[in-house]
Design brief:
The chain has 17 helices and 27 strands. Helix 2 crosses helix 10, helix 3 crosses helix 4 and helix 8 packs across helix 10.
Length: 550
């Protein structure tokens, strides 16, 4: 029995990697199309995809990239993103896709945190990247410019992607170590409450089981043609019918670089897409456009949305105009999705986040002022009592952060992740999200923490103090709103706007869109900012026309 278990363990740990699954599909489906890029008209079979991946993998090995080295790339959805993702798996490196909307200062902090040896960036981000590189302590060994038009020249000391892979072998890269399901294969960054991004490590088995989760819940298989309209650097981008599960299942991925509703509908019709993924604002835009265009969407097996709940009226409209098969997932970067609403739940359960996924356990526990609730200290299942949503997701989470033991200790406890999300649940364990303990703002699908924006505003010498919140917005979900106490009576709204635009420490999408000057901001007796009060005030001020739009 002992020998049997040892043999099973050895083979399972060595052969059940994401890379092994991809290579099975290269063998089985070599002539089948794996990827299509409408922007240039290029397409790749599995054999051709593997060829281009090998060229990049061999180039990186030639650069001395070793097991565990970090490959960081700041790219919109594109073929090179897919090449880098698979190539890192092949040579035991760690994928680290980062948000292409970060400011120079944020990029620099991320580089210094993960210390990548390779950095690949978009041509139109060059000024920001150069500024970031002037701020870092760790400079990547190789900096690669990616231009989809292949016309830009790399600055001195950089190299273009085409130059980097030119002449490289198309054969399988040779490595001198055994790969394991426990190897870190991908590292994603998620916003932190203090403004410091947190590195979320994922192992190969996390990526395999995240792929299986998609294949179970859609379900999805090798016949499917998918398009994820969200940025792939997100967990929901790369793992929800993005490169990870689609290539693992042997399906085809159609790349949408930037979401345009009309183009998306055309691709559904012409390419016979079976699954499309997008945030709720994408569904709203698709619905409005489809009512005008009237495209043939009969190939769709489903449209999957994440990021926020679906209202009942909106859900019914999406089912009528787009497809009856609307799905909605809830989760985190750390754990992927963990509750899921399927078509048979809708529209009756619209507004909820759904029930736990097959391999997950999602609970709502009590909130105490002086301690963290135990996992069994649940709130009543009456959809009234509010508690904190906690998640057990052993298949899809590594249960830690990179270089951040304090946050690891704070967020993970007894096999659960404590999300800081507030919610209720019912007798069938369907969870409804009520808000966020940490007052996070979600604008256009991006997480924004008020404290980070406040820190930037408070560095302006004309600002005495501030509090940042958000107001509802039909297009973006929420818009960042700042209340400012002046240190200098001459301060203007235009000066605040210009200051944020020029700050290297705040991404453009995080800057306030509304301002109001006030004599004081809401504080409790100990001087803590009351963000929930600011949010109430902002909603009232917006309704009464008291906010200044910049």
């Amino acid at each position: 029995m002992k020998d049997y278990l040892e043999n099973f363990k050895k083979n399972f740990e060595r052969e059940y990697t994401w890379k092994a699954g991809f290579m099975r599909n290269v063998y089985r489906y070599s002539g089948r199309r794996a990827m299509y890029f409408p922007e240039t008209g290029e397409s790749w079979t599995y054999a051709e995809l593997n060829r281009d991946v090998n060229m990049l993998a061999n180039a990186m090995l030639g650069d001395g990239i070793k097991k565990g080295d970090v490959i960081m790339y700041q790219l919109l959805n594109c073929p090179v993103f897919a090449f880098a993702y698979v190539a890192a798996h092949k040579i035991g490196a760690v994928n680290c896709p980062v948000n292409y909307r970060l400011s120079a200062g944020e990029i620099a902090l991320t580089i210094d945190d993960s210390k990548p040896e390779i950095f690949i960036y978009e041509a139109d981000q060059q000024d920001v990247i150069c500024q970031a590189l002037s701020m870092v302590h760790h400079r990547p060994k190789r900096i690669i410019l990616m231009d989809i038009n292949k016309t830009k020249k790399a600055p001195e000391g950089f190299v273009t992607y085409e130059e980097y892979v030119k002449g490289q072998p198309m054969t399988e890269p040779e490595i001198d170590f055994e790969q394991s399901i426990y190897d870190e294969t991908t590292r994603l960054y998620t916003s932190g409450t203090t403004g410091r991004q947190k590195g979320v490590p994922l192992t190969s088995i996390n990526e395999v089981l995240s792929s299986h989760d998609v294949m179970i819940h859609f379900p999805m298989d090798q016949r499917d043609i998918t398009m994820n309209t969200t940025p792939w650097f997100h967990r929901g981008g790369i793992h929800c019918a993005g490169p990870a599960p689609t290539f693992y299942a042997g399906g085809e991925i159609v790349i949408m670089r930037k979401f345009i509703a009309k183009v998306c509908l055309e691709l559904i019709e012409k390419q016979k897409l079976t699954f499309v993924i997008g945030v709720p604002t994408v569904l709203e835009s698709l619905t409005e456009t489809q009512e005008k265009e009237g495209r043939d969407l009969s190939s769709l097996k489903g449209i999957v949305t994440m990021g926020s709940a679906l209202e009942r009226a909106a859900c019914i409209k999406y089912q009528r105009v787009l497809t009856p098969n609307i799905f909605n997932g809830y989760g985190t970067t750390e754990t992927f999705w963990n509750t899921f609403l399927r078509p048979f739940d809708l529209p009756e359960k619209a507004g909820t986040a759904g029930g736990s996924c097959v391999d997950d356990d999602v609970r709502v526990v009590k909130i105490f002022d002086d301690r963290r609730a135990e996992p069994d200290e649940e709130v009543a299942k009456n959809n009234i009592e509010v508690g904190e949503v906690i998640i057990r997701s052993p298949a899809k989470s590594a249960y830690c952060y990179i270089n951040n033991p304090e946050e690891t200790e704070r967020k993970f406890y007894k096999g659960y992740m404590y999300t800081n999300d507030l919610g209720t649940w019912d007798e069938n364990n369907y969870v409804s999200i009520a808000g966020r303990k940490d007052d996070m703002i979600i604008s256009s699908g991006e997480n924004i923490y008020p404290t980070q924006v406040e820190e930037v505003l408070n560095t302006f010498d004309k600002v005495a103090d501030c509090i940042v919140t958000a107001v509802p917005d039909k297009q973006r979900g929420e818009l960042v709103t700042a209340y400012i106490v002046k240190a200098d009576p001459t301060l203007t709204y235009d000066e605040l706007e210009e200051y944020c635009k020029n700050s290297p420490m705040i991404a453009n999408y995080k800057r306030p869109r509304y301002y109001r000057f006030v004599a004081q901001i809401p504080l409790n007796l100990t001087g803590k900012k009351l963000h929930y009060k600011a949010k109430e005030m902002a909603a009232s001020d917006l309704a009464n026309g008291l906010l200044h739009r910049v």
